């Protein structure tokens, strides 16, 4: 590059400021080494100049699911259960039968009726295995307004006894909701399924979920900046990217989980709630690229990693491993140039993690795209363009 010329990745990330996000952090690993890292923008422009840093925290949203799945697999490796164990064998409230009925649109909050030929059918819960929950083929609806159960109250504003009762009431609703389709009939990405997997991690570990994630994932990986409820951590003060003005809480969120259902459970849930840095998210991805190995030791057995990365289901063009999304030729968030073996995940707040085994490449891209609202148009274009540019830079020797 000529003197003073910006690196293409820096120019691209700067072009998104004020349009797609106010803060972004990118961490790229090639052959296990940092090939690029950058942090851009302001964490919360409304509250003054707080430049984004490489160690700034972002709301991971659904990238939380990868940490839950990792903890679960470690517990399975320890003999606590198996992938084909029915969920009800771990969770007593997830037993018996449920009916196929309505789901709910997560953005519009309107009820979605079941398919006419499926409505009213009975589902035996002993059919639903941990594997089905991890693949998003369980039959559970994508989403329900759990936060509205018990009077639409914020847990953080309640006394401890009331908060505990509210959380129990809301999780009881998750267990009891109608199913949306027959198990195994299709892939429906389900927050409800991972809420239940979070409960399973608690039951199998004997620990509250936050402690279980710390013991099973963060400590083995050496992650020191990955946490639920970052405002409770003194080291996080002034270094968290803000998200949206929440329509439920009626305030700009800064250090509070954006996801309403996770917030309604106290900020700790199986589907969302974790905050982390781009570097630590990339470290999780590197562990999966390296077959479960890290410099600190074996976190997962190689067989478990390969099982999670392999195609478990391909329905309607949706390819899934266990928790992981697998690359598809069209419409994939990792663009068109990642290899067919690639796997990754995205988060609603504007986060993503993609791994390309063919290129020994890990890309953690964290943004606060919901700062400007929930319209996904900008981030839907941004993600594939970024990942295509990363491959171009790699092929041109710029990484």
Verbal overview:
The protein is α+β, with helices and mostly antiparallel strands. α1 runs antiparallel to α10 and α2 runs parallel beside α5. It has a domain of 135 residues. The mean pLDDT is 96. It is 29% helix and 17% strand. A six-stranded antiparallel sheet has the order 2-1-19-18-17-16, sandwiched between helices. A three-stranded antiparallel sheet has the order 3-11-8. A two-stranded antiparallel sheet has the order 4-7.
Summarize the structure.
The chain has 399 residues and is of the alpha+beta class. The chain has helices at residues 8-15, 64-77, 130-135, 160-176, 191-205, 209-221, 260-264, 278-289, 302-309, 377-395; strands spanning 23-30, 33-41, 58-59, 97-99, 103-104, 111-112, 122-124, 227-228, 245-246, 251-252, 274-276, 293-294, 297-298, 313-315, 318-320, 325-326, 343-347, 351-356, 361-367.
By DSSP (H or I, 4+ residues per run), the number of helices equals 10
Shape: globular
- The secondary-structure element order is HEEEHEEEEHHHHEEEHEHEEHEEEEEEH
Neighbour order of strands in the largest sheet: 2-1-19-18-17-16
Largest sheet: 6 strands, antiparallel
Approximately what portion of the residues adopt beta-strand conformation?
A: 15-25%
| Rg value | 20 Å
Ends distance: 12 Å
Number of strands: 19
Low-confidence stretches are none
Which structural category fits the helices and strands?
alpha+beta
Mean pLDDT: 96
- Helix content bin: 25-40%
């Amino acid at each position: 590059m000529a003197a003073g010329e910006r690196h293409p990745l820096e120019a691209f990330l700067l072009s998104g400021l004020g349009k797609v996000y106010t803060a972004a952090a990118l961490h790229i690993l090639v052959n296990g080494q940092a090939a690029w890292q950058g942090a851009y923008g302001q964490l919360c422009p409304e509250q003054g100049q707080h430049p984004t840093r490489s160690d700034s925290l972002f709301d991971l949203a659904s990238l939380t699911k990868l940490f839950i799945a990792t903890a679960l697999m470690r517990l399975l490796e320890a003999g606590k259960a198996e992938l084909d164990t029915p969920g009800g064998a771990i969770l007593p409230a997830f037993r018996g039968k449920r009916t196929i009925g309505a789901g709910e649109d997560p953005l519009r909050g309107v009820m979605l009726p079941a398919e006419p030929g499926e409505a009213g059918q009975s589902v035996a819960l002993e059919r639903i295995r941990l594997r089905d929950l991890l693949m998003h083929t369980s039959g559970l609806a994508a989403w329900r307004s759990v936060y509205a159960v018990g009077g639409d109250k914020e847990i953080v504003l309640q006394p401890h006894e009331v908060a505990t009762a509210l959380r129990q009431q809301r999780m009881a609703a998750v267990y009891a909701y109608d199913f949306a389709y027959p198990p195994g009939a299709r892939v429906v990405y389900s927050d409800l399924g991972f809420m239940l997997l979070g409960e399973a991690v608690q039951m199998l570990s004997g620990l509250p979920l936050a402690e279980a994630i710390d013991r099973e994932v963060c400590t083995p990986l050496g992650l020191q900046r990955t946490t639920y409820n970052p405002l409770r951590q003194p080291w996080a003060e002034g270094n968290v990217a803000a998200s949206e003005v929440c329509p439920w809480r009626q305030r700009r969120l800064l250090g509070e989980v954006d996801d309403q259902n996770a917030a309604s459970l106290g900020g700790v849930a199986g589907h969302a709630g974790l905050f982390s840095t781009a570097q630590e998210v990339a470290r999780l991805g590197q562990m999966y690229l390296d077959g479960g190995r890290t410099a600190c030791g074996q976190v997962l057995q190689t067989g478990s990693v390969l099982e999670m990365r392999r195609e478990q289901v391909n329905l309607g063009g949706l390819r899934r491993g266990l928790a992981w999304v697998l690359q598809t030729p069209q419409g994939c968030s990792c663009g068109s140039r990642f290899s067919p073996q690639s796997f990754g995940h995205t988060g609603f707040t504007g986060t993503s993690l993609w791994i390309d085994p063919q290129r020994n490449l890990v890309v953690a891209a964290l943004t606060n795209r919901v700062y400007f609202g929930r319209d996904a148009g900008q981030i839907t274009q941004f993600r594939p363009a970024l990942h295509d540019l990363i491959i171009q830079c790699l092929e041109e020797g710029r990484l």
